[in-house]
Task: inverse folding
């Protein structure tokens, strides 16, 4: 989508700090990190949210998530995955992304 910020990042029109890329997805550092590790896993295909995905994309994202957890060094101490969805979920960018957050003890509940 032409007005989508993550589509622009994927096309290289907006710079990013990329930690992983393949034919289906990228993983980039969040521009406003909430923890020492804050990476966004983003499918290259513009899908608005997790409900709009096919099973093979969900499988790909989750298997690469496991690799990234190790690469980012949060496997042992723990981390959090977040998929904000819709208005109540606090989604601000309507292109599916999974937050991978860690590197400190995270609070709960989130609000
Ligand atoms: P949401 O609120 O939709 O779950 O998360 C959107 C995330 O995208 C936010 O954490 C925000 O900081 C991040 N973000 C927004 N614009 C950009 C950008 O241009 N570059 C990067 N790397 N992250 C962005
Ligand atoms: Zn998009």
Result:
């Amino acid at each position: 989508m032409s007005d989508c910020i993550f589509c622009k990042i994927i096309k290289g029109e907006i710079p990013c700090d990329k930690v992983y890329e393949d034919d289906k997805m990228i993983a980039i550092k969040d521009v406003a990190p909430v923890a020492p590790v804050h990476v966004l896993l983003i499918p290259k295909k513009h899908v608005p949210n997790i409900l709009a995905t096919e099973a093979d994309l969900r499988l790909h994202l989750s298997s690469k998530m496991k690799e990234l957890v190790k690469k980012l060094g949060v496997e042992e101490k723990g981390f959090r995955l977040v998929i904000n969805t819709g208005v109540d979920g606090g989604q601000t960018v309507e292109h599916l992304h999974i937050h991978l957050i860690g590197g400190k003890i995270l609070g709960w509940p989130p609000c």
